[in-house]
Design a protein that fits this description.
The chain has helices at residues 44-63, 71-80, 83-98, 102-123, 126-137, 146-161, 168-198, 214-226, 251-262, 274-290, 296-301, 309-340, 349-364, 368-371, 377-393, 477-494, 510-513, 515-521, 527-533, 545-554, 559-577, 588-598, 616-619, 629-646, 652-663, 671-679, 686-691, and strands at residues 201-203, 232-234, 396-399, 411-416, 422-431, 441-446, 457-464. The protein has 695 residues and is mainly alpha-helical. The strands form two sheets. Strands 3-4-5-7-6 form a five-stranded mixed sheet. Strands 1-2 form a two-stranded antiparallel ribbon. Helix 21 (559-577) packs across helix 22 (588-598). The relative contact order is 0.11. Residues 2-14 have low confidence and may be disordered. The protein binds zinc ion (ZN). Residues 485, 489, 514, 517 line the site of zinc ion.
């Protein structure tokens, strides 16, 4: 019901939309690639609006069918619906994410509420649900193949999760709760934004900023100026720890910044979020009850790989002793570093990063300037990222200059399969631009589906530094890792080999989708791959061994701290969202303290990565009861890589088996069972502990 570009029903007439719009017909380019040479900024909005209207018309065609509901007359046309919407939205999402401008910005704002209403119009459509439900109930008596059964269950669950199963009175109640939840989430965001701004550290005394570089101090002066203030301002980041704490040598400054961060939303003023989150947690539990679940977490995890809150808890509980023991030993090193620098105080959270940085510098300082000449971007891409994929899966790559792109930095490769036949298009847009979102991501212009006859057109976006014209693009090892990571997502999309677009490629739950990407990161340091791409851009010389060693070791530095702060946040998330519907309004501070103590994560020197009162992932970012997924997928990635190590590493046989059993399967099978069938057992944390130096 989402992807595809083959012919759909004729789009309903909409203002400004007609045959001259490049989205009107499916693209005639290879792989149905978006015709960016013909698409103008003004084309997106009318196409997307016409696409919504067309899909609603297609759905009326399903619900008004007089014949009894069957898989063929309900699920299949539902999967086929919305193709105009999909091809326009896919291109629109790419350009708004990576190359936005005021026209696109305006279209995005105008479309957001319409797209939300469109989704409701489908998932709260009682006639449609009645048909889906009838097919669902009869699914075992029909001779449906396993992927079709999976589609029926997946689609039915989507409806049920949206509240389709409720009576009209309950639906009204759900609507009220959803509205209140949305108001509270918005209020949380507004308060946090203001609180973050107010909690910036300000000083008139440059001496307080000792340790920062000249550029950082100049930026702080500029930040003050932008606020119409004198002196210096260090704006606050979202996390508990602040980047500047690693450099600031004046302890009182560090303490003040940390206090600003920790208490940002707890001043008892208009920006205090505690009452908001307490009610939000309570409301989510009540909504879960209405939908038939014991807790918000139970509702959210049902369609995830973990399936139950208990499974996520068991995973975290197993990691806690190793993570906290490692953090404690890192704390000892840091306490020793404090003493060696003449300090006579006990390590506090605001000291950690500063002294950890000293420890890191003495143990294995990685000098970026020394490393980067060995990581020239094109070489990393073709002799590293592509090379590893070729050795594992037999695929090959050739650049296509004839496929139009949305921006001149974007490159396109055709990916050919083992038999030489075209498999996918791969676009990469690696360089930073001012009109590009931060970070890195993967998505698709066209998702694979046998039903729709579509093959994948996938893209990777990143924010790597763009060199001056004629200069090579030299990147850090972190950037190299990002390229392997995003390409792991790309492989998940390119190897997709499924019937239905809704189950294809990366259309998997949150606690699975980062598995192929994190897994692919492992090949960056695999000796045979590394030596193939890590060559000096001028001389072609391999990287000296001591540098390679430093890269390997520095990867696990401070891992105890990082994992402990992540687990503490993930546990706070899970504890809040396991509250029963009968729970009273909680006092957030007390609740947080007790939750951390109960889960053995109340380490004074290692506070949670986010405190409850400024944890925007879970209160407004859609990550509620899902923050554990970051570490969960790391477990899968490490466990999977260990299987490769046990079976001879980088071989075609290993790659083919992984592709066949995991990467091509999307969400067509129960993911825990799929994984266990490939691995020979359920995943566990042993490999994660080994690769992250936590044993
Ligand atoms: Zn990712």
């Amino acid at each position: 019901m989402s992807a595809g570009a083959h012919a759909a029903a004729a789009p309903a007439a909409a203002s400004g939309f007609g045959p001259s719009n490049p989205f009107y017909e499916p693209s005639a380019l290879p792989f149905h690639a978006p015709p960016f040479d013909r698409i103008k900024d003004a084309d997106y909005q009318p196409a997307i609006e016409a696409g919504m209207a067309a899909q609603l018309a297609e759905i009326r065609g399903i619900t008004e069918n007089r014949a009894a509901p069957t898989f063929e007359n309900t699920l299949i046309p539902l999967e086929r619906s919305g193709q105009l919407l999909e091809r326009a939205s896919a291109a629109f999402n790419a350009v708004t994410g990576a190359d936005i401008n005021p026209v696109l910005e305006q279209a995005k704002t105008a479309l957001a509420p319409k797209l939300a209403a469109h989704r409701d119009a489908i998932f709260l459509n009682a006639k449609l649900f009645a048909r889906v439900s009838a097919v669902y109930k009869a699914r075992s008596s029909k001779s449906l193949d396993p992927e079709s059964v999976r589609l029926v269950e997946f689609t039915y669950d989507l409806f049920v999760h949206s509240g389709a199963n409720l009576s009209d009175a309950q639906k009204a109640q759900l609507k009220t709760l959803n509205e209140e939840a949305s108001t509270l989430s918005n209020a949380f965001t507004t308060k946090l934004l203001a609180a973050n701004k107010n909690a910036a550290y300000a000083t008139d005394t440059p001496a307080a900023l000792a340790g920062l570089s000249e550029a950082q101090i100049a930026a702080a002066a500029q930040a003050a100026q932008a606020r119409g203030a004198a002196g210096y301002v260090l704006p606050l980041q979202n996390t508990t720890q602040q980047p500047a704490l690693a450099s600031l040598s004046v302890r009182a400054t560090r303490e003040a910044i940390f206090a600003n961060s920790w208490n940002r939303t707890e001043h008892g003023d208009a920006n205090d979020t505690r009452a908001t989150i307490a009610r939000l947690a309570q409301l989510r539990a009540q909504r879960a009850q209405l939908l038939g679940y014991p807790s918000h977490a139970a509702w959210k995890l049902e369609d995830q790989m973990a399936k139950t809150p208990q499974a996520a808890l068991d995973f975290m509980n197993a990691l806690v002793p190793v993570a906290t023991a490692k953090a404690a030993s890192e704390g000892k090193d840091i306490q020793a570093a404090i003493a060696s620098q003449g300090g006579s105080f006990s390590l506090e959270p605001w000291d950690w990063d500063f002294y950890a940085e000293r420890v890191r510098k003495t143990k294995f300082d990685l000098d970026d300037a020394a490393v980067k000449p060995y990581f020239e971007l094109n070489n990393v891409l073709e002799n590293g990222v592509f090379y590893a994929a070729n050795r594992l899966y037999g695929v090959s790559f050739k650049e296509r200059k004839d496929v139009p792109v949305y921006q001149s930095d974007v490159r396109v490769f055709e990916v050919d399969d083992v038999d030489g036949k075209p498999l996918a298009l791969f676009y990469c847009d690696y360089f930073k631009r001012d009109n590009k979102n931060g970070g890195a991501w993967m998505s698709s212009f066209v998702a694979q589906s046998k039903l729709l006859g579509t093959r994948p057109a996938i893209y990777n976006v990143a924010n790597l530094p763009k060199p001056a014209p004629g200069e090579p693009a030299l990147i850090s090892f972190e950037d190299v890792t990002t390229m392997f990571h995003e390409f792991g997502h790309a492989l998940h999309g390119m190897f997709a080999d499924t019937e239905y677009p809704s189950l294809s490629g990366t259309a998997t739950p949150r606690d699975f989708v980062e598995f192929p990407s994190q897994f692919n990161e492992h090949w960056a340091l695999y000796p045979e791959v590394f030596s193939h791409y890590a060559k000096h851009y001028k001389t072609g010389a391999p990287m000296p061994d001591d540098l390679v060693e430093k890269i390997k070791k520095s990867g696990n530095f401070d891992e105890g701290y990082r994992l402990t702060e992540l687990l503490a946040a993930a546990q706070l998330d899970m504890q809040w969202h396991m509250l029963p519907p009968s729970a009273p309004l909680e006092d957030p501070d007390k609740f947080e303290q007790q939750a951390l103590a109960r889960t053995r994560l109340d380490l004074h020197e290692v506070p949670p990565r986010y405190r409850s009162s400024y944890f925007s992932h879970i209160w407004s970012g859609g990550y509620s009861a899902g923050y554990y997924a970051y570490s969960w997928t790391q477990m899968l990635a490490d466990d999977a890589y260990q299987w490769f190590e046990e079976h001879g590493g980088l071989t075609r046989a290993n790659g083919d088996r992984f592709r066949q059993m995991i990467l091509s399967r999307g969400n067509t099978q129960d993911l825990a069972a799929m994984y266990a069938a490939w691995r020979g057992r359920a995943p566990n944390i042993d490999a994660m502990m080994k690769y992250r130096g936590l044993e």
